[in-house]
Amino acid sequence: MAILFDTLKIRNRLTQKGMNEAVAEEVVELLNEAQIADLATRRDLESLATKADVAQLETRLMRWTIAAAGIGGLVGGLIGSLAT
């Protein structure tokens, strides 16, 4: 998500504070080029998993692993008993 700057307003404020107009224009141009793509927005941060989400997922995975191991043991036992 891009962050929009009012470049004219920034340039005007810089020149009103005594900055040379050409330098103020360059500062505004650098602001436009420098950032935007790598900034995280509030929406980006809200979409990240929390520690609680990760802990809940770990618990679910552990339950699935234990259940799968139990089923595997039962199947192995059944196959073993049928083979004898």
UniProtKB/TrEMBL annotation:
Keywords: Membrane, Transmembrane, Transmembrane helix
Domain of life: Bacteria
Segments crossing the lipid bilayer: 61-83
Entry protein name: DUF1640 domain-containing protein
